[in-house]
Design a protein that fits this description.
de novo design (two linked rop proteins); about 75% helix; elongated
């Protein structure tokens, strides 16, 4: 079901990709050991959530203001790679799951850096 209330940032493909990634991480961390509930599981979920949240937060500002939240989203995606590596080393996820996360984060980061470059070009034309 689709809401009758729509926000422009929801049209950004990188935002949609980030939201899908968050749901993937949430489902994945449900299988982590209970001792990780307030540790790695929580940190991984919060880092993945932060990607889309930063995009939404920064979208309504000026182009110059949007650069900073995009950078924060990139930083959060890097944090997801670190959490992914910890989960793999602790044997909470398989190599294939780890590679899938790396692939998705790579795609998201390319989209974020592309968006940031596009905004910087617009700023330089002013």
């Amino acid at each position: 079901m689709e809401s009758e209330y729509h926000f422009k940032f929801e049209d950004l493909l990188v935002y949609q990709k980030a939201m899908d990634f968050t749901e993937f991480v949430d489902a994945l961390t449900k299988d982590f050991p209970p001792r990780e509930l307030y540790a790695l599981s929580s940190q991984f979920r919060r880092a993945s959530d932060s990607i889309g949240l930063n995009i939404a937060e920064g979208y309504t500002g000026s182009d110059a203001q949007f650069i900073k939240p995009i950078n924060h989203a990139i930083h959060s995606s890097n944090e997801c790679i670190s959490a992914n590596e910890k989960a793999f080393r602790r044997k909470y996820i398989s190599f294939e799951q780890s590679e899938n996360i790396r692939k998705e984060v790579t795609i998201i980061q390319k989209m974020l850096t592309g968006l940031r470059s596009k905004i910087r070009l617009r700023l330089n034309k002013k």
